[in-house]
Every structure is written in C-alpha cells, then in structure tokens.
Amino acid sequence: DAGVTQSPTHLIKTRGQQVTLRCSPKSGHDTVSWYQQALGQGPQFIFQYYEEEERQRGNFPDRFSGHQFPNYSSELNVNALLLGDSALYLCASSLAGGRDQPQHFGDGTRLSIL
Amino acid sequence: EDQVTQSPEALRLQEGESSSLNCSYTVSGLRGLFWYRQDPGKGPEFLFTLYSAGEEKEKERLKATLTKKESFLHITAPKPEDSATYLCAVQVYQKVTFGTGTKLQVIP
C-alpha cells in the first residue's frame, strides 16, 4: 500500500523563479493538504484541496497556488520566489469523513532559494 | 487565532527514564488533537487522535491524554529509538495548526 509520495525530493531555485511541487496521496485518500516547514519549526498550513477545489487556506500570499486532479493528486505552485520560501514542503492526505481523519504525510520536497 | 504551545522545546532522557511532553492549545471549536512523530529528513508520522476531554490513547510506550486546555504525551521507559521530534496539532474545520515540537533524545 503506497503511502504519500512527493516529487522532487530536493530543488534549488533562484529568487523570482517559479516552482511546481507534486504529490500523490495515499491509496484511498481523496483530500490533500500542503504545509511549509521551516527549520526547527512545526509545519504551517498552506491550503487544502478536496474534489478539485481549494477548501481552506492558511495565511499565505496569492503567490502560493494549487491544483487537485481528478485522480486526487495535487500540485503546489509558488511564483516569484523569495529567499524566505526556502523550506521543507510537505503534502498530507486524508479521507474526507464525518469524524476528522488523521493526515498521512509524505517526506516532503526540500526547496532552497539562492 | 488558534495557538498551540509545546513544552519543553528539548528533552534529554536516560533510557528507561519516564517523562511527559506537554501541548497546550487555544482554539475555538476543536475537532481533533493529533500527535505526530517526526524523524530528521522525514515527514511527520501519525501517532494518535484525541477528540474530547478525558480521552486517552496508548501505543507501546506512549500514552496520550486530553483535557479542555492541554494534552500530554507520556513516555514510559523510553528507548533510544524513541528519539525524535514530537509534534502536537489541533484541527478546526479543515485547518490543522501545529506546535513547534519537542525534540526528544533518549541516551542509552
């Protein structure tokens, strides 16, 4: 049973560039959330996708956008990259349901901005 | 705004020395409190979900408890393989807010 997979594992970009990160959810999961984790900090919620729609968003600027595909996989896009965007980007998947389901995380994409 | 505070930031234990990690929270409309374990270079690994005050969950050497304002993760007779960062998170609607974690080191 494949867990959450993310690609690429590492990425180096320069300021002003754009980046796309990809996530395949755990088999059977239909909801995908994205998080940014700076070094020594807890993950910060960026947004969540369900049924190809953004369901809720955290305190991140519009430079951060996403998409969910019919097969439940998802992309995170970041435009006009800043040095402060350097972080580990985590994808988490869960199953939408009446009782809040735990999220299962991938191992993330380490993004470095030069 | 939802807030989650974890203490201590770091904890060093001898193997077999039991202790507790604390997670205090301020939220409106808690739907669930989660505990995760995170190893270096890895994503968080789900441990427990707690939904209501008085609830307890156990898994091997770990036991999580919940009150109306805080949660505790009790570690009984820890082993070196329990060394990791332990994260607490609360869910309100679809948004999950994490604390900054407690870095646990268990020395043989």
Which CATH class of chain A is shown? Mainly Beta
Distance between the termini of chain A: 37 Å
Biggest pleated-sheet summary of chain B: 6 strands, mixed
Query: What is the total tally of β strands of chain A?
Result: 11
Level-2 CATH architecture of chain A: Sandwich
Share of helix among residues of chain B? under 10%
Largest interface: A-B, 25 and 25 residues
Q: How do the helices and strands follow one another from N- to C-terminus of chain A?
A: EEEEEEEEEEE
Radius of gyration of chain A: 13 Å
pLDDT average of chain B, as an integer?
95
Shape summary of chain B:
globular
Q: Could you list the spans of chain A in which at least 5 consecutive residues all have pLDDT below 50?
A: none
Q: Can you identify the CATH class of chain B?
A: Mainly Beta
Structural class of chain A: mainly beta
The low-confidence parts of chain B are none
Strand content of chain A: over 45%
Give a structural overview.
The complex is a heterodimer of chains A (114) and B (108). With 114 residues, chain A is mostly beta strands. Chain A has a single domain (5-113), classed as Sandwich (Immunoglobulin-like). Chain A is 0% helix and 50% strand. Chain A has strands at 5-7, 10-13, 19-24, 31-37, 44-50, 53-57, 64-68, 74-78, 87-94, 104-105, 109-113. In chain A, strands 2, 4, 5, 6, 9, 10 and 11 form a 7-stranded mixed sheet that branches. In chain A, strands 1-3-8-7 form a 4-stranded antiparallel sheet, with no helix packed on it. In chain A, a hairpin with a 6-residue loop joins strand 4 (31-37) and strand 5 (44-50). The radius of gyration of chain A is 13 Å and the shape is globular. In chain A, 36% of the residues are buried. The model of chain A has no long low-confidence stretch (mean pLDDT 94). Chain B is built from no helices and 11 strands. In chain B, a hairpin with a 2-residue loop joins strand 6 (56-59) and strand 7. Chain B has a single domain, classed as Immunoglobulins (Immunoglobulin-like), CATH 2.60.40.10. In chain B, the strands form 2 sheets. In chain B, strands 2, 4, 5, 9, 10 and 11 form a 6-stranded mixed sheet that branches. In chain B, strands 1-3-8-7-6 form a 5-stranded antiparallel sheet, with no helix packed on it. By secondary structure, chain B is mainly beta. Chain B is globular and about 40 Å long. The model of chain B has no long low-confidence stretch (mean pLDDT 95). Classes of the chains: A mainly beta (114), B mainly beta (108). Chain A binds chain B through residues 4, 33, 35, 40-45, 48, 50, 55-56, 58, 90, 92, 99-100, 102-108, and chain B through 4, 31-32, 34, 36, 41-46, 49, 51, 87, 89, 91, 93-101.
